[in-house]
Design brief:
NAD(P)-dependent oxidoreductase; globular; alpha/beta; eight-stranded mixed sheet; two-stranded antiparallel ribbon; Polyketide_Oxido-like; Rossmann fold
Amino acid sequence: MRILLIGATGMVGSRVAAEARARGHEVTGVSRSGKDGTARAQASDADAVAGLARGHDAIVLAVAPPRDGSEPVAPLLADGRGVLEAARRSGVRRLVIVGGAGSLEVAPGKRLVDTPDFPALYKNEALAQGELLEVVRKEAGDLDWTYISPAAVIQPGERTGTFRLGGDRLLADADGNSEISAEDYAVALVDELEDPKAVGRRITVAY
């Protein structure tokens, strides 16, 4: 499989690249900086991304909103819409999006991001990721998309290959912890690329 990976130098993107390559897939990495051997492009630049995507089997969008204190929703939505349009122009229907956990429900109609203890540092980013999910649900019906939310906590760790998958509800263990390593998140994402089971919907991965 030929995969165009946008955001290939980030915490999650770099692990998705490593997991996919370890399974024999060809990965074309893209980043804003063009460092570490990646192609340089902005996700919001549909023409540039379409040019890079042609001939690939799937696009993975693994970019995060800015954390510099600026308003994060507009930049992330511009990136998302740019990639949706690039997929259409390039003829690559398969799109997998690295999403956020904040939009997952902790109770019917109540999102994690709306709970009192949600960290203020990540709230704007979580709201932006939730907006992107809604845009994809409304505007990407012509594409084979999957949006994958991590657990509430995702960080570098071990690759165990053992985890649970869910839908729109936050997954937590018996002690109330909701965690996943970036390595195991990457396993779940590449599994979905290889054997699509969640086309047109959001899933989540956690221990």
